[in-house]
Amino acid sequence: MVKITGDTHGETARFWELISNMKKGDTLIVTGDFGYIYKDNSEENVFLNQMEKLDFNICFCDGNHENFDAIEKYEEIRWNGGRVHKIRKNVFHLMRGQVFEIEGAKYFVMGGGYSRDRYMRKEGISWWQRELPNDEDYKEAVRNLEKNCFEVDYIISHTAPREIIRMMGFNPDFKEGELSGFLEWIMYRAEYKRWFFGHFHVDREVCLKHRALLFDEIII
Asked: Contact 200/208 with Cβ under 8 angstroms?
């Protein structure tokens, strides 16, 4: 079974509570701001080693509050049809613009987001330029969607399409405009059943196909 949750932000106690009903062979997907590879220190490594002892997979797309320097040090491999950084044998960073087949369903993943609080952060310490996709990320996404005839079962992202952001009552960030605009284009171009995202720290069924997630499991 696949379970999807919102931003975990490296919260260890809540992680153990979240996974209490996970079973062997399940897959947990976090919609960005994973946070367990953020300080890149021994304490985080101990926790990741504990994750490796679990008998299910833990996957995450990247959000805006990620240590990209630390994540990108891990080996890149192909997993279930798409590119990932292998953090542990059962912990994977789902790279941008990839399509994965998990338990017989296709998942298109597009991480990235804009940090409104970047003015409080320090580049390379608590904020990274790579929080937003680059041209190659967008090209990779289009290539992989074209390979699948723009038909997938589920879409996982950190932020949301521009129109969905407005439907939630928020104003899309100007500097995130390219990403939210791209996601909006996918929203109208692709065929999919459901779209899950985090970033806004609300748990809300925005419309029939789109759901914003808090740190609370959703079962597909």
From this structure: no
Choose among 40, 85, 64, 70: nearest CA to 127.
64
What's the burial of 107, exposed, middle or buried (CB within 10 Å: 0-12/13-18/19+)? buried
Show Cβ contacts of residue 220 under 8 Å, excluding neighbours closer than 6 positions.
1, 2, 3, 4, 105, 154, 194
Q: How many CB atoms lie within 10 A of CB 95?
A: 22
> 0.70 cut: is pTM over it?
yes
pLDDT single digits (tens) 144-170: 999 999 999 999 999 999 999 999 999
At 47, is the secondary structure helix, strand, or coil? helix
In whole angstroms, how far apart are CA 69 and each of 6, 122, 164, 180, 210?
Answer: 22, 14, 30, 24, 31
- Render pLDDT for 22-50 as a digit per residue (tens, 0 to 9): 999 999 999 999 999 999 999 999 999 99
C-alpha span between 110 and 28 (Å, rounded): 16
Strand order in the sheet with 98-102: 98-102, 105-110, 154-157, 194-197, 210-212, 204-205
Polymer length in residues for the chain: 220
CA 105/CA 109 separation, integer angstroms: 13
The phi, psi pair for 191, rounded to 5°, reads: -105, 125
- Give the pair of three-digit tokens for residue 138: 């967008």
Sign of the alpha-carbon torsion through 28, 33, 38, 44: negative
